[in-house]
Amino acid sequence: MNFNGMWLPEAEDPRMQAGATTGEKACLVGYLEHYRQTLAMKCDGLTAEQLATKAVPPSNISLLGLVRHMARVEQSWFRRVIEERMDLPRLFQEEGGDTGFNFPEVDDDLVRASHALWQGEIAYAREVLERTDLDTVVDAKGDPTEVRDIIVHMIEEYARHCGHADLVRECVDGRTGQ
């Protein structure tokens, strides 16, 4: 179906249901949630093989790789940095530091596990944000950084990778928009 270049009618788009925000924290978290949902939408309805499809050589970016990478990013910023658990091993570090983009033979189990890992890290990050003030200063890899800066970085990280996801999805099945 064609919804004027959109994936869904605007009234059915889960990202458009939250309404207006009030306050800085709600605004920042709202944008972060918007991009989390956007990446999930870009992966919706694809097979394991389609999710593992690389964008264009020599890039190793795939939708499944983006999901795994964002699980790593969520874990690093919210568990390791904000909660100061730097002793926690980074996700996918044992795989040569590929940040999640390389993976073994893809199958439905790997897809389910990757999405569960990502959603688990998002759920944990939501809990951290619920109890953490934006003005809280943490040691972000040697630099004192306010939590608000980390949220802005996360928005930027997701926005950039959602752009990649748009291109990968278009390569996979031609679907564009939203």
Automatic annotation (TrEMBL):
Highest taxon listed in the record's lineage: Bacteria
Family matches, as InterPro entries: DinB/YfiT-like (IPR034660), MST-like (IPR007061)
Gene3D superfamilies xrefs: dinb family like domain
Protein name: DinB superfamily protein
